[in-house]
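Is adenosine monophosphate placement plausible here? Inputs below.
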Amino acid sequence: SCADESKACAGVFVMWEVVQRTLNGSQFYTYSICNVEEREQDNWLRTTFIQRHPLASRVFVELKFIVRDCNSFDGASLICKETFNLYTSESDADVGTTFRKSQFKKVATIAPDEITGKNEMHINTETRVVDGLSRKGFYLAFQDIGACIALLSVRVFYKTCPGTVQNLATFPETVAGAENQPLTEVSGVCVDNAASEELPRIYCTEEGKWAVQVGQCQCKPGYEEVKDTCQECRPGSFKAEASSDACEPCPANTDTLEHGAVLCACKDGFFRAPTDPSTGPCSGPPSAPRDLSAVPQPSVGRLILSWTPPEDTGGRNDITYSVECQRCDGVVCHPCGERVRYEPASMKLTEARVSVSELEAHLNYTFIVEAHSGVSQLAGERGLYESTYYFIYFFLYPLNPPQITTMRLVGRTSTSLALSWDVSPRPRPQLNIRYKLTYHKKDDNLDKTTYTVLTLDKNSAQIKDLAPGTAYLFRVQALVSLVSCRCVRLTLFSLPGNPSQNYTVLLVAAVLVAMMLIVVSAVLFFRRRKRNSHTRQGPEDTYFSTPEQLKPLKTYVDPHTYEDPNVAVLKFATEIHPSHITKQKVIGAGEFGEVYRGILKAPGRKEVAVAIKTLKPGYTEKQRQDFLSEASIMGQFSHQNIIRLEGVVTKFKHAMIVTEYMENGALDRYLRDHDGEISSFQLVGMLRGIAAGMKYLSDMSYVHRDLAARNILVNNNMECKVSDFGLSRVLEDDPEGTYTTSGGKIPIRWTAPEAIAYRKFTSASDVWSFGIVMWEVMAFGERPYWDMSNHEVMKAINEAFRLPAPMDCPSAVYQLMLQCWLQDRAKRPRFGDIVSLLDKLLRSPESLKTIADFDPRVSIRLPSTSGSDGSPFRSVSEWLESIKMSQYSENFTCAGIVTMEQVLQMKTEDIKNIGVRLPGHLKRIAYSILGLKDQTSTLSVFAV
Ligand code: AMP
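Reply from A.M.:
I modeled the complex. Tokens:
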């Protein structure tokens, strides 16, 4: 016992004994005391000096102990205790065995949860906290105040939060629970190759647990998180920003071979537009627009160009198009200038379509359509941009021209190239196709370019003497004798630098051709501007001032109203000096004399091809006046579809009328010569031109009276112009003119019934004639009512019969003919209506696909089994002659088809095989055979 605290108590340990015990079969030592029978117990047991961790201000003391139940002692229970006390004392040094009770502070009274009785033993474990420690070390002491205790173990410890890596931040081991501070804030450090905007922090709880991290570390660009570390992105992947994301595979058309890539570079030939994200895919320039086509809208003077978007957009969706117009004269092209208008625009088009207006007829236009995207410029800057140029040659009514579809390099040395090309559709033999091959060095300045031109019969060529290492631009054009086809393909081939190098061919562009159609009046306005510097026309005489004002302001003046017809001529026609006229060749015979082709070269003006009508010698003054009256009439007109008067020679002995030259001559002959070769669309386009000319005449109150295909002239561009305006022409000039009972000569087949009956010639009777012209055109110059007599024709008309639809005639066109042939002239359409309707049909070519019912027996007027005299055909040639197909006689003979029986066995395929290729001819012969087989049919009725 050592209760006196004034002196050191040496006996303090005496009462606590070290006792060896056996528990559950194992032996261990305890500090025990059991003075339960004596009062006033105060027995102390103190530990040795315990060094304190400098950061551990709070320590835990875990005690294992046994306390005997006081009731298990007989008689001692009254003073017996069942608790003991825990004390502590801080010190900066070990004080050895010196013990002063007063220096100790009580920490807790320790009571057992279970007390130990006589027969069983209960070990209790209690933990107490000793807080607020600050000195270098401390002692613990246990005070017994009269209990029976065995202290099995004392464990003194403090708690830490273990060193850790959390969210890519490293935090050190941290002692938990500072004074009055249940949470200890700990700063961390980002792992290698990770960074954080905010210092990473975490809290260590009293219990030694980490909680609530602040400030996130993320792997730097080029690194991704792998198990608490940041690893480099593998080749082929990248990471652009510090983030917790993984590395991504390189986007389309990019790659990287490096580890730890921050970005992927564009592969060769691919680019990023300035606005493209650096992390996005790269894209290539778009390929060329495809299938460029052009549709004329003649009524509004427009051409609609449309195309299919590039096959390869280069992976972009910002494709725009630009359209450039060039006028090509031979091989040299110039910009079309500002006059050509584009709707909506010529650049930055987002739709694959543009409307081009203010174009002129007769000129070759080239439209270059390029596709662009955000990377075109970059690609171009590096010389990689491939642009495709589409060439369209714009002209009037071409016949389905062959196109050059591909151009190939088939052989090459350092100084020569062998090329070949394909044509589609395969040209018919009679087209006599040739090719014009033009080439020049690609890099030559346009002004200085030397072109070499070769004309070839076959679709291949070997070009020699080229400069090594040079790129040449080749252009091949299909020349077709029948039409002035413009079929061009441009291709660039380069030559190897030296013979040993094996270059691949760099190819720029290609393409094509489209045939273009435009109806003449669409360009009326431009022609009018160019022309009409006629001296006879003062400003007040100008018929048009804007395209909208198409209506003439003047009416036609009958030259007869002039007392002196010579005055009329001089008012309406320009006098030409005969020395300015060169006659070249007789091209026809007019009523008054020969018609020549020639040249007019007026001072200060360009040479023009002209037709020169002459007045044969020995004429009377009356004849001279009649002759010149045509010029007086023609001179009053100015329209695209009316033959233009260049001038007259009146002041010299040989009077002449000089008009524009129409290369293809009279329409009826032209159609017969091209039977089956012209599409319905083109035929309707021609009719539209004639109708426009007639509308002009009717607006001027001029009645033609002799409108027929033979009086329509056709020029090189298949433009049709109304001609033949003499005052006496119907009477004298027209071989079709027939004297009628009402007097005068009338071309019966072309003339409206009221004009035949009582000479009621009006624009409505011209409309009837126009209907006949329509029929002539759609039947390729067939004679109206064939070989019926005039009398039969008049009878049929009076009995309400009308011509049947020609073969392959669009239904809408035939319906219009029938309208023109209405008995009641007031009900016939006017020329204005006709022009509008034809325009409508041309605008939607689909509308021409429905074909009018056709009866071969009546339309071709084939006698059923017999010749014209009613007897059967005696020979194949007689039959062919009757259907105007004599040109194939030889084909039949060569094929051994010499009897009509053999003819009757022929199928369409057989007809083709013997060399009848033109669809129109093929049909005609096939239909004829059909008719021959039909024994019962006769040709007596036309449909109404
Ligand atoms: P005409 O008697 O005035 O109709 O002329 C007779 C023939 O000459 C016509 O059938 C045409 O073949 C030809 N002809 C007349 N005028 C022209 C012209 N401007 N251009 C070409 N050929 C013409």
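Short version: The two ends are 150 Å apart (CA to CA).
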